[in-house]
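[job 0417] fold request received: DUF4194 domain-containing protein
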Amino acid sequence: MEHDIRALTARLIAQRWLPRKDPMVRRALIDETFRHEIDQRLASVGLRLLDNPYAAHVAVGLTPDALEPTFGSGREYQASNMGLTRDEIALLVVLWALIILPKRERQVTRQNLANEGQEELFAAEQPVAHGAEVSAGVSEASLIADFGPRLGGKTKVRNFMLGRLARLGFIERRSGMLLEGPLLDVALDYRLMADRIIHGTLAGVLSDAGHPPPAADAFALAGADDEDEFDGDMPEPGSEIF
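[job 0417] inference complete; emitting structure tokens
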């Protein structure tokens, strides 16, 4: 077991994310003893496993006590430890709202893209879905047309901002579509973000651009509680990513 623990820990640190279907990752998610050893090994160097049962990947991030010693000396940490600008963070949050919120709504209602909008008999008996079958993309041209003027111009968004988010693993760009990347559903905390978007300022911005967020009941189904109500501060996307 020691060899597997060292191997998985090294892969997580080196690659930053791994698919949930990976045999060692699956073992860490179902084997309590193995998971405890992985958590202990990561914690010894200020890291922790970022896991979301609805996400197709797991990732490694910093523990809260390691954030300031690791990134506190850099000016960019005030916005993001990845060096993202305010405009890039705003675009990241918009993409998260357009891709992850509808995806989560489909997951908690046991729907995939093929039967979206149809009633499903015995839906409660189906497993919670995650992955490509429930994650839809966003048209790059539509996104740029809607939000480019608000974020520094269409050229800046297309040539620089989207490219940076893709290189960091938040999104993938395929044939004019923006798809969920391996970090998008694990790096941003759904429990904190969803209610703030559904009931906050971004909901109006999305609606004005023709992208209304899903109904609030999807957030409730995902397991939020009253303690996570909006307190006026938007969380910092990526603040825990290693």
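[job 0417] notes: The radius of gyration is 18 Å. DSSP finds eleven helices and six strands in the chain.
[job 0417] exit 0
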